[in-house]
Every structure is written in C-alpha cells, then in structure tokens.
Amino acid sequence: MKPPSNRICLIEDDELMGESLSDRFGLEGFEHDWYRTGAEALAALRSLSYALVVSDIRLPDITGDVLFEQLLTEGQRLPPFIFITGHGEIDSAVNLLKKGARDYITKPFDLDALIDKMGDIISPVMETGMSGLGQSPAMRQIQTMLKRLASSTASVLITGESGVGKERVARALHDLTGQNKPFIAVNCGSLTESLLEAELFGYEKGAFTGAARTKKGVFEQADGGTLFLDEIGDTPPAMQVRLLRALQERSIVRVGGETLIPVNIRLVCATHQILQERVVSGVFREDLYYRINVVELRIPPLRERPEDILPLAHTLLAEIAATSDKSPPGFTAAAKHAIKAYPWPGNIRELKNSLERASLMCDGPLISHDILFERPAPVLFSQQDLAGSLRDYLGECERDFIVRALVACQWQIQLCADSLGISRKNLWEKMRRFGIDKENTIHLV
Ligand SMILES: Nc1ncnc2c1ncn2[C@@H]1O[C@H](COP(=O)(O)OP(=O)(O)OP(=O)(O)O)[C@@H](O)[C@H]1O
C-alpha cells in the first residue's frame, strides 16, 4: 500500500495556467508535482501517493475522463480529484462526479474558489502540524517542548484526560530521538502486582510456577530506547519502591535473579489522574513523583482546543481510509459545524471511534451530521456558532427535502427535477453539493 502523503498532483498542459496554479499552490504551502500530459500523470499516480489531484479535463494526449476511468479500472485507490472544466464539458464533469470524482470547477474560475475547495479536502490534514499532534497554541507549545526534550534524556510525565493522545505524544517524542530504537509501552493499571513485577523486570527460569524460561522485562526490552509507563498513578505501592530503585540505580534485577542488569532508557510516564493529589493522600510516593516528573506535559482535552478537532478528524479519516480501498470522505457543512461544537468527552479516542463508524456507514463523498451523530442535526446553535448557521440550517433543510423528493420519485432524476421545479443539471449539482446518493441516503429518510 502506498504511504499516505500530503502532496498534490497537478495535471495541466497549459503553461500559463499551470504556472499560476503552481505558484499559488506554493504560496499556500501546498507541496505539489506538476504534470503536463495524461501519460506522465498516469505513471505518477500509479506509483506515488497524493492527497489530492487537480486535473484539467482537456489534455494533449488523453482526456481527464479517460485518465480517471483508466485508474479506476486498474483498481487503484484514488485520492480525491478536482477537475478543471471548460463550459462545454460540464456533462463530462457531472459524469465524473457520479463515478467518484470529488468536485469540479469551471473555467474561467477564481483561484480563491479553487483554493477553498482544495482546503476543504486537504488543508486540515496538513494543519495538524509536526507529528500531526495539532495546531492549537497548546499543542504547538507541546511540539516545541518535544523538540527541546529530544536532545535530553529527562524523564517526562504526560498528563491529561483519557483519550487525549498521551501515548501518541510519547511516540512523537520517541520518533524525534530514537527512530530505530525500541519504544515499549506497558499499562501499569491493568496488571496485578506480581504480573506487573514480571512484566517490568522480567524473570529467571524457575522463579515461580509457570516460569518455564528466562524472560526479559520491559526495562531490558526498551534498553537504548523509550519505556512508556501508562497509568503510572495506579502502580501498586510495592512496585513503586522497585521502580524508584531501578530508576535511581539505572539497573534492574529480574524476579528470581541476583545479577544487577544495567539499563539505559528514556522514561516517559502518563496518567489521567492528578498525581499531586495521590501524593498528598499517600497513595503515590513523593520521591517517585519527583523522579518521573522532571518535565510535565499537560495535554488539554479536545474541548479546550476546538481548532484541533476538524484537522484531527481529517487526519483520522485519512488514516481510516488508508486501511481500505476508499478515498477519505469529507464532511457536510452541518457535520463540520457540529463536530466543532460537540465537547468530545472521550477526546480523540471518541472522535476516532465515531469516525470509524461513520466511515463504514457513509458511501458517498461526504459524512453528514446524521451519520456522524446518529441523530438529525440540531436546530439550536450556541451563541458562538450563530454566524453562518442560518445558511447551514437552510442547506440541511434543502438537502432533506431533495432526499425526500428523490425517494418519492424512486430516484428518477428527471421526474424528481420536474417535481421540484428545477432542471436536471441543477438537481445533479445539488445532489453533488450535499453528497446525496441513493445508497448513502436512503436510510436517513
Ligand atoms: N494526533 C493524533 N492523530 C491521530 N490519532 C490520534 C492522535 N492522538 C491520539 N490519536 C488516537 O486516539 C486514540 C487515543 O490516543 P492515546 O491512546 O494516545 O490516548 P491516551 O491519552 O494515551 O489515552 P488513555 O489515557 O486512555 O491511555 C488512539 O487510537 C490514537 O491512535
């Protein structure tokens, strides 16, 4: 499978048009490759991975339609396509939309409009910043700290609610420091005391019933790399003593063993608890607390960094799509609105689960509010969301009305267009804009 990419594939034979598009993409920070012929582009799309293709329909060798259909027949996993069409080519553009292209724009067009369409599809993915952690000031600060920490071996404590991405941050730190070294994670809260001891420090053959062979613990497995101790706040008291000794002496003794084995690890711990409170109540050792907490990184919950939600959602959708043959869907306006307004109490884990489910349910190019939240869009908006909400709301009403009309007309487009009093082309355009197709929307009525 081709690795996910953030690059754009531009297919344009006209030198002037290609140059202005290429210059503008550069200014917008979109990395891109520019191909002048369909054949060149075909070869590139077969071997390289792109986040988006912007293609002229009319090319010197093959047309954009042929190129798209050729890739479809080859069973390639296609990135979203935006086609640039002339006035006479709208029918082929609409045909391409039916076959799965994301959008089209008609010449002469306003570059800003194209950039907006592109931004809806890819810029959110790019904006998640270094390591894809987020673009909010809090996450940018964390990324700066990670870069600083990369050159030290100080122990790091990552705190934050469940599902905020603490392990992800630990891995990002590890990736900055020891890419070819081990990253070993263990959850200290999910094991009994004796299992945790064996997991952390390993055991010698015969140390206890069932110890049929010598086994290295995670301290030894992580030697030279990162040891990530999740839910450190739940470590039983006896294990806290052993942990402290291992960290102070930089060596461990396997269960049932006598030899001191030196270990060289970067320790990263995480907890969703307030460790100071556990220290005060005597559940967590103060000396261990200071040992593991040389630097604390607090990851805010998603509701405190709403600007990260949509970019993360797009990143997650791209990750989910990469495991299947689909290209990542986008969101309807109402879904975007709601995704930013919802507080996500389960944080990124909840967002990821919802998107996994929505991706399964959604057959069209856009995930609607109904699919994402398994309920119709709310009519009421919070005060901060009022700007633009009337348009979004009217859009949702229009979409619902069209779906009902389509169902009533048994999806006969001409009949439905006549009953709605609009042209067939206008109906197709509205269906494309609202992401309506038969398979995807019939159950919502
Ligand atoms: N920046 C990110 N981009 C994409 N996915 C992410 C990101 N951060 C977290 N995730 C995903 O969200 C889920 C929860 O993340 P993670 O396990 O790192 O959270 P956590 O804070 O360690 O949770 P817990 O406290 O429950 O252990 C995981 O599936 C992870 O892959």
TrEMBL record:
Source taxon at top rank: Bacteria
Keywords per UniProt: ATP-binding, DNA-binding, Nucleotide-binding, Phosphoprotein, Transcription, Transcription regulation
Keyword Cytoplasm: no
Domain Sigma-54 factor interaction: 132-360
Domain Response regulatory span(s) in chain numbering: 7-122
Residues bearing PTM 4-aspartylphosphate: 56
Pfam family, one: AAA_lid_14
Protein name: Regulatory protein AtoC
Organism: Rhodoferax lithotrophicus
Taxon lineage: Bacteria, Pseudomonadati, Pseudomonadota, Betaproteobacteria, Burkholderiales
